[in-house]
Amino acid sequence: MTANASAETPVTLLGLGAMGTALARTWLAAGHPLTVWNRTAARAEPLVAEGAKVADGAAEAVAASTLVIVCLLDDASVAAALDGIDLTGKDLVNLTTTTPAEARARAAWAEERGARYLDGGIMAVPPMIGIPEAGGYVFYSGSRELFELHRESLAVPVGTTYVGEDAGFAALHDVALLSAMYGMFAGVTHAFALIRRENIDPVAFAPLLVNWIQAMVDPSVEQTARQLVSGDLTTDVVSNLAMQVAGTKTLLATAEEQGVSAELIQPQFALMRRLLATSTGEEDLTGTVDLLLR
Ligand SMILES: NC(=O)c1ccc[n+]([C@@H]2O[C@H](COP(=O)([O-])OP(=O)(O)OC[C@H]3O[C@@H](n4cnc5c(N)ncnc54)[C@H](OP(=O)(O)O)[C@@H]3O)[C@@H](O)[C@H]2O)c1
Q1: Going along the chain, which residue ranges are E strands?
Q2: pLDDT cut 70: percent of the chain above it
């Protein structure tokens, strides 16, 4: 399909929140005929001047295009918006953030109603939509055939990364990355708390923190991945577990000295101590991954 052929593909978009509105503008700018629906109709009005057709209801919007994209608050809002609507022959692409189980159930639900289904997890915030250099993308999973068919239309707002036929995998990748982000934020929060009462300029401290995190993250993430695949946890270990657990005492004592709660870092240290209790201490932290499995 050429870029021009893709631009002729009509798109229906359900949901004009912050994200849906940003997505809508990119399809309009790229020349796609776009039909939109939002529960609160007023949110659609600004898009009319940009060329969107506003449907009277979700059913009318769904009927307008084969490619139906949904970007609503959560899975319950998807169920509410699509309740009782004929999906026969539709290509349903759900960009709503859900759990993997919700995505799988929604895929089965859509297929029972005669639609093909693709799930998406958006790795971007609205200002990144339509700005390729911002680096945002969407994880897609579910029907590969559907992904390939609509790949160019889906790539209009933001990059695309297909992660498998299992409809739950986009959500799982999305949540895994977000969970890692919050772990990183926890460390950043603790670091700023440690310096908070001192005569240290947080603005001067920030690049030191950023550079340190960046220097640590690449090698440690890649090493963990390699070790999880090989099962060899002791080759190429740079900072062994025994040394690291000993070092946590200094980190906890420093938090105490600075009058800072260790509540954000304690859980990881507890996991490291549990691992050391069953290990020679020659490995690094990869073994904590499997300690989390229930
Ligand atoms: N914003 C971000 O930074 C970001 C980043 C990545 C992923 N996402 C995901 O993108 C999705 C949309 O986010 P957003 O930022 O656009 O959220 P938002 O601004 O809060 O908009 C929520 C949308 O869901 C609709 N909605 C809520 N409950 C509904 C219901 N029961 N029935 C029908 N429609 C309902 C709202 O309609 P009304 O206008 O009528 O309330 C609105 O269109 C979410 O799943 C979010 O996790 C967002």
Answers
A1: 11-14, 34-37, 53-54, 67-70, 91-94, 116-123, 137-142, 159-162
A2: 98
Mean pLDDT of 45-55: 96
Q: Which long-range contacts (CB under 8 A, 24 or more apart) does 261-264 make?
A: 261/193, 262/190, 264/186, 264/187, 264/189, 264/190
Please work out, in degrees rounded to the nearest 5, the angle formed at the alpha carbon of residue 16 by the alpha carbons of 27 and 115. 70
User: What pLDDT does 131 receive?
Assistant: 96
pLDDT value at residue 93: 98
Same domain, residue pair 211 and 253 = yes
Cα torsion angle, 108, 142, 139, 226, sign: positive
| CA–centroid distance, residue 15 to ligand 1 (Å) | 7
The CATH number linked to 121 is 3.40.50.720
Bridge partners, 118 (sequence order): 93, 142
> What are the phi and psi torsion angles at 189 (to 5°)?
-60, -45
Same domain, 128 and 231: no
Task: Looking at the structure, tell me whether residues 231 and 138 fall in a common domain.
Answer: no
Distance CA 110, CA 142 (A): 12
Nearest CA to ligand 1 atom 32: 77
Shortest-distance atom of ligand 1 to CA 15: 43
Ligand 1 centroid, distance to 88 Cα (angstroms): 25
What residue ranges line ligand 1, CB within 6 angstroms?
15-20, 38-40, 43, 71-74, 77, 80-81, 96-97, 122, 125-126
Ligand 1 center–CA 19 separation, angstroms: 7
Per-residue pLDDT averaged across 140-151, rounded? Answer: 96
**What is the whole-number distance in angstroms between the Cα of residue 73 and the centre of ligand 1?**
3
